[in-house]
Fold this protein.
Amino acid sequence: MPATVVDGTLWKGWESIRKRLAEVHAETNGSQVWVVECYQGVHHEELMRELQALAPDRFINTRDLFKSAEDIEAMTYPYLTDDRLFGRRAHFSYTDFLDEEKVNACRESLRDGKGWAIVYGHAAAEIVPAPDKLIYADMARWEIQMRSRRKEVNGLGVENREEAPSYHYKRGYFIDWIVCDNLKKKVLPKVDYWLDTHIVGTPKMISGEILKEGLEKTAHTPFRVVPFFDPAPWGGQWMKEVCDLDKKQDNFGWCFDCVPEENSLYLKVAGELFEIPSNDLVFYKTRDLLGGPVEARFGQDFPIRFDFLDTMGGGNLSLQVHPVTQYIRDTFGIYYTQDESYYLLDAEEDATVYLGLKTGVNPDEMIAALNESQQTGKPFDTEKYVNKWPAKRHDHYLIPAGTVHCSGASALVQVKRSEDMSYRSQRSMVGTSVFINNMPAFAYQHTYALAALYPYATQAAKGEWAFQGEFGYSFKRNTALGGKYGTKLKLNVSHIRSLDKDPVEEFNGSTYGTDGYKSKFFKVGGETYYQDINLQMEKKLTKAFKLNLMYMNQRYNKDVVEGHGGTIKSNIAVAEGKYQFNKKLTLRAEAQYLATKQDEGDWTYGLLELSVLPYFMFTVSDMWNNGATNLHYYMGSVTFNYKAHRLMAGYGRTRAGYNCSGGVCRYVPASRGFQVSYNYNF
């Protein structure tokens, strides 16, 4: 990832940071007041614990100086409303969140000048505007969104970590981030040290001078922000391959690649990447970055957003319209709107773009149809009201504000040839040992136990031709096949073959420059390594109950993958039901059957899983070989989740065999007894 290189010192990890701060304090005589200001979204527990380890004479948490959560909720409600997405931009400052009497008492206590005091938290730099040392703990908005999805953060002055991520984003966008940004603009020019807190437990720190030098340098040279990717209800499969993303994800709908208010930016100091919000650059070097006329129009807002939208192998993008300037100002308190353009990097033959209302559309009729769809779930007849245009690769569409638009869906087909792509840390090893690289397989990554009983691993050493196609279709709501809630069908086909290889003659007993064969690039070999044809159906039967069904036909060449066992042909059926009693309590059940005449014969699997959000999950399962061995592989477990921590305790029996996850396959030995595991997500 491109980064602006800056000479200077970087402190990494809490031990190093505390050592530096202790040295700075030791260099000063007398009493001092230090301020540690924070952006919304930082992990307060971690920061307070590590800063208190400096053993100051006084440690003041600004959270104790805020108004009550109830008062702040009442103050902010008119701007947030009850709507899931829409609100109105507020113009609060930290003084609106603070209890004036408590702040005055705090300031009075600091005037005694005794000892070393650290004032920590939101609004610390507002409470103490002229500290002896000023430190800022920063956070990019994309990381904040990730933490809110994991229910790890609260908004300013409220306890809302359990709320849906959409409400977190709305509170941040319309209120909290504005408040934080306004104070950040004031403190950035005079800060002493800047903290990168994006990686939990591994902060990094640079001086304020190094930060400002990096921003100055970045503003006068081409630079790249740090992109981020996110799934979407309509997301596709194109970016997975082109951008080499996680194949285990269902889809990726978004790639934000030039959105400074959400993306981050890298500086490189002392060989280490130092991550800051891109907005820091916009705030500090506004005119240098934007120019005078743009600054006069948009202030300290970067007026361009660039992102990828992927619908290939997915569904239609949501139908949307961006308001005209007057409407967005009057309704949402935002002083500029969004004009868009679509540039199609790739498209299938049947690709389409929905753009603009049809001539003669009755506005009242259309609004009535939209309201009916919202209230009853009846599908909105898009093509009755909106123009549908054929689209091809490299087409470019200008979409002014006020124009209804969305992009259409398409299918995905992908092909991969790999040869001699294995790298080992010890060249003499064979099998699956000591591989440095693990190439993900061009096959569907199953999560159901019996569907994943025979997992395929890419044959990097042997080489392979891999073909995969995925096709999906959604039956609309309130149709014969869609029912009340709609029905989704997905067909995935994977077929992996050997390479065609012709032996070459030896020369003086050697085959220099080859592995003993020649291979025509486009010729497929005669041996099938793996085949998976699976059809899945997702059906919501009631508001609380969802049913997933799958049929899978599989051919698994055990000789190739594991070194013995022949080719296993199997048929697999899966039924999964999920019932949500309420927001916190969900019961999930699985029933699976695998039928085969090879290997150990047929298998039956059953599972019950009770989720009690946000902390517990109780699971019982049994995988029974009702073929050759008649063994039951049973398991009962309790899982506890808290923030980044996951603790699981269980008792049962596990089967020996290969287990694959994320393209990495390993052999798991048989076991029986108690199991305890602990995971920490960084």
